[in-house]
Amino acid sequence: MRGRYKILVYGCQMNIADAERMEGQLQAAGYARTEETADADIILINTCCVRETAEDKAYGKIGEIKKIKEQNPRLIFGIAGCMAQKEGDNLMRRAPHIDFVLGTGKVQELARIVAEIEAERAPVVDVTLADKSIAEHLPVARGGKFSAWVPIMYGCNNYCTYCIVPYVRGRERSRAPEEVVAEVRRAVAEGYTEVTLLGQNVNSYGRDHKVADFADLLRMVDEVEGIRRVRFMTSHPKDISDKLIDTIKNGEHICEHIHLPVQYGSNRILKAMNRVYTVEKYRERAQRVREALPNASLTTDLIVGFPGETDEDFAEMLAFLREMRYDSAYTFIYSKRSGTPAATMADQVADEIKHARLNALMEEQNTISREINEALTGTEVEVMVEGASKNDPTVWSGRTRTNKIVLFPHGTEQEGDFIQVRIMQPQTWVLKGEIVH
Ligand code: SAH
Ligand code: SF4
Ligand code: F3S
Fold first, then answer.
1. From 63, 158, 192, 414, which residue has the greatest number of CB atoms within 10 Å?
2. Which ligand is nearest to the CA of 154?
């Protein structure tokens, strides 16, 4: 063993997937994982910058690691991910105890950079954004035992006016379908039964290489021998096609859960956000999904406090939420990201109004989630077992195909098993049930 590493990950599933590829490289180079920051020879933070709170968390950790570095000057401390991409060498100026800054397009360089720092002890900053190339065949150290994250494309071309992601992740690049399918096959051979295909906007998969579109890819992955569940995220409402909806409907293992972030419920704000669709277009697409997949769960992301948002806009938002009846929603307060068009828009909304609107939105959504879940009382669902719940080892949890968390008293089932559960006590966030024998 050459030493121990610890990787801390913030942000979205894409960041988790990247971190698994960083970890794979470190393991291949002879490093072993440790949970203790104090024991580590390498500490790496994979950062997010989608909202200010995400950056604050990373800066807090960077501060904490200063003390560890003072006690262990041989420690190699690196920052990767979206905040690394955004800040580059500013990070080192602000925190000179950082040894390297690795951009989002440079995941594959980690092992080389660590070796270089071990040899030369000089700081490294590499944040050149990837052009069209995609690093394939990296070793992957997966975090889950039965569920695997599989990126199918990188970057984003959409430039929603509030969002930093296109600036820190670069232009859309799709992996070749045979690479994706090969990765899924390898994962299945290693015992994984569920994959989640990842991209900022999976619906635009393949627009660059034109070999296969997302629906084609989903079908190929669905047909991999041994796969039990295929998930995907995120779908952009502007291009969720009939072909894709039919593919989900006709697929055997494609899970009936569609995360279709609407972001807002009034045309004025959607336009200012550059989301490209209208409320009417979104409604039409969502209806098409519901007709084709009546048992599917539909989830969303919502942003309150976008510049210029009025009480009338917000009333429309609430009405739209009531109409759509999402199974669940991630609700965010708009966070100003410098460099994005929205950051300099007039009429930024005051903090207390943002918070009040967020609370109103969450309250409304919680009622809806609870009602939808209550309607499941007495039904039987297929659950993929995940393991003991955090608070009580006799209560285990798992997920439905629709991505709802189910809690049930533990019997003889093992992690990764597929079982039938009867829903007895649905709640807002979880469904409590009993195993059907
Ligand atoms: N590509 C995905 C996810 C992007 S980031 C998509 O388009 O849906 C995840 C979520 O963060 C977004 O859906 C959006 O709701 C939220 N988000 C992005 N930028 C934000 C900002 N500046 N302030 C608050 N929330 C933001
Ligand atoms: Fe951001 Fe919009 Fe791209 Fe999603 S689609 S990552 S919200 S720019
Ligand atoms: Fe955050 Fe980057 Fe993901 S900004 S949400 S980690 S793409």
1. 192
2. 3
| pTM given for the model | 0.97
**352 and 416 together in one domain:** no
CA–CA gap between residue 24 and residue 32 (Å, rounded): 10
163 lines ligand 2 (CB under 6 A): yes
Measured CA to CA, the distance from residue 223 to residue 251 in angstroms comes to: 9
Q: Which atom of ligand 1 is nearest to the CA of 259?
A: 8
Looking at the fold, whether 388 and 366 belong to one and the same domain comes out as no
CB 79 within 8 A of CB 102: yes
Rounded distance, CA 27 to CA 36, Å?
Answer: 17
Indicate if 330 and 417 belong to the same structural domain. no
At 1 the pLDDT is 80
β-pair type (430-435, 418-426)? antiparallel
Name the packing angle between helices 279-292 and 242-250 (round to 10°): 20
For atom 7 of ligand 3, the residue with the nearest CA is 165
Ligand at minimal distance from the CA of 330 is 1
* End-to-end Cα, the chain, rounded Å: 47
* pLDDT value of residue 390: 87
Q: Is the residue at 133 inside a domain?
A: no
Question: Are 206 and 78 in a shared domain?
Answer: no
Range of the domain at 343: 147-374
Q: Tell the residue nearest (CA) to atom 10 of ligand 1.
A: 301
| pLDDT at residue number 140 | 97
Same-domain pairing of 360 and 413: no
Question: Which structure tokens are listed for 165?
Answer: 């992601």
Q: Is the preceding peptide bond at 234 cis, omega within 30 degrees of 0?
A: yes
Residues 363 and 386 in one domain: no
Angle at Cα 73 formed by Cα 70 and Cα 75, nearest 5°?
A: 110
What CATH number corresponds to the domain at position 385? 2.40.50.140
Residue 142 lies in a domain: no
* Contact (CB, 8 A) for 158 and 236: yes
Considering just the CA atoms, what is the radius of gyration of the chain in Å?
22
The Cα 306–Cα 308 span in angstroms is 6
Q: What DSSP assignment string belongs to 243-304? A: HHHHHHHH-SSB-SEEE---B-SSHHHHHHTT----HHHHHHHHHHHHHH-TT-EEEEEEEE
